[in-house]
Amino acid sequence: MEELSENCFHEATYLDQEGQLRTSRVPVVQELARRGFKHLPERFIRVHLEHDYDVVDLSLLNNVSEVLPSISMAKLRARSESTDWTRELAELASGANTWGMLIIKDHGVPGHVLDGVKDVVKEFFGLSFEEKKASVGSYVSVDNMGYVRNFVKSEDQPLDWIDRVTVKAAPVGATQGLHVWPQRPADFRHAIEQYVHEARTILNDLLEALAEALSLEKHVFLQNFDPKDSEINVRVNYYPPCPRPDHALGLTPHSDASALTLLMQFDTAGGLQVLKDKKWVNVPWPPEALLVNMGDLLEIMSNGKLKSPWHRVVTQMDVERFSVALFYNPSPRTLIDPIRDSNSLKDEGYEKVVVGDYLQHFYRVSPTAEKQAINFSKRPKT
Ligand SMILES: O=C(O)CCC(=O)C(=O)O
Ligand SMILES: [Fe+2]
What we know:
- The structure is a single chain.
- This protein has one domain (39-377): Jelly Rolls, CATH 2.60.120.330.
- It has 8 helices and 18 strands.
- The chain has helices spanning 29-34, 73-77, 82-98, 111-126, 129-135, 188-213, 296-301, 355-365, and strands spanning 9-15, 21-27, 54-57, 70-72, 101-105, 138-140, 144-148, 163-170, 231-239, 249-254, 260-266, 272-276, 279-282, 290-294, 311-314, 321-329, 335-336, 353-354.
- Strand 1 (9-15) and strand 2 (21-27) form a beta hairpin.
- Helix 3 packs across helix 6 and helix 4 packs across helix 6.
- The chain starts with 8 loop residues before the first strand and ends in a 17-residue tail after the last helix.
- 2-oxoglutaric acid (AKG) binds at residues 235, 237, 251, 256, 263, 265, 271-272, 311, 313, 323, 325.
- InterPro entries: DIOX_N (IPR026992), IPNS-like_FE2OG_OXY (IPR044861), IPNS-like_sf (IPR027443), Oxoglu/Fe-dep_dioxygenase_dom (IPR005123), Plant_2OG-oxidoreductases (IPR050295).
- One of its GO terms (molecular function) is oxidoreductase activity.
- Belongs to the iron/ascorbate-dependent oxidoreductase family.
């Protein structure tokens, strides 16, 4: 077994509990996996994993009447076929509330666009660590952009078994003059931008449909997304094979801070789990489908009628996995005014919040053991 060379680390800078600026050297997971480490380095070990909630496959449960809802984008868009449309809308409303996560079929993204993303992502992660570092810089916004570490807040925090590269794909011009798009492969930016273009249409259509599904005016959510300054961050996640899937996670449990997240995965289906009724449910993800998550910002906009799911990613021993998460947000300056429903007895008590303030708060407190960042925009209970 080889040692990890001196420079195969990411540097993570953070403020510790006392407000001191600290730097942590975080091993690059892909490099650990490449060297065939048979033991999980200590910083990745989670001792509590086996004491966590049970894990279930929906297919193994015969007493579960609900399944993860599956939406046909084609039927949702073809409003004229009214029975199908009404059925999709009903599925959308209940799914977005009870699961917060929806399978998106018939999404209409051309195969060559999806293949283009897969090709550039694989080519990027096929480069050596030094080549990757040279190909793309990093910069700090509220989230970490570039080819850098996931969030690190202390030396004791268990690390995720993941490598990732994140780019701000919209608004256009946001990254002008910054070295934040990978230069290799040369068509990385083009391939991602083609996908972002398709994704935006899907997400805008969903925002309208979600409003209609809740019997609201169809622009109530979409009106927060100015086409010129709403934001799209694209995070490419690479989960290398892991020597001890029983003691490590690919991604720590979290909800997404975004309004909506569109997910694609390739090569393998397993890994993503969503917490439902105190059980981790393996997400049954059909090969050609995309997935959409409600994010915290949409939960706030909808005053809790749509729920952001608590989810995580597990690792596998001999299998590598890629996913692309596309986070769709209003501009940071947008003031979110949660819907008020005078007929509803169920008011979750969300208050107005500025998007940028929420994101700052989310990243300051994350990671948390449970879903709690969102309380930032809730009225204190009396
Ligand atoms: O890899 C996945 O399927 C999920 C990724 C995810 O939850 C995230 O990037 O926020
Ligand atoms: Fe997520």
